Amino acid sequence: MNQSPMPSTLKTLPPADQRQLMDIARESSFPQGARLFEEGGHADRFWIIRTGTVALDLHVPGRRAAVIETLGHGRLIGWSWLFAPHVWHLGGEATAPVRAYEFDASVVRAMCQEDAAFGRHVAEWVGGVVAHRLHSTRTRLLDLYAPYGSGSAL
């Protein structure tokens, strides 16, 4: 897939690592309303959005799933594939038709094992996404369920 433009989310990786990932990318698409993955399911792939949007949601017992964040162009969908036990921590649903680059998690994990520098770069990239999602999750849950929200509007 060398001729495709480099997704902006990959620009935090060194150029050689960007090319390595894009070489194994395949194009995929999802109609509006499609579930890409379910919380608790096996995380065996990840995506980078080309067009469309995906809502990340969290199961809340006795309530409708809480949308944590909506992601669009250039954003990484999924981080659970990198860390054992490779189970989705959130769910994901296309809120508009999605075209994305899809990556096989087992192939990328094998690449990380074979090349320590590549593996470190991927772990740092995905770790940054995890930190951002954790913050977004905390803020959203406080907004929904805390008596005074997250306090971010003060």
UniProtKB/TrEMBL annotation:
SUPFAM superfamilies: cAMP-binding domain-like
InterPro entries: cNMP-bd_dom, cNMP-bd_dom_sf, RmlC-like_jellyroll
Ranges for domain Cyclic nucleotide-binding: 9-100
Organism: Streptomyces lasiicapitis
PROSITE patterns: CNMP_BINDING_3 (PS50042)
Protein name: Cyclic nucleotide-binding domain-containing protein
Superkingdom, taxonomy of origin: Bacteria
High-level lineage: Bacteria, Bacillati, Actinomycetota, Actinomycetes, Kitasatosporales
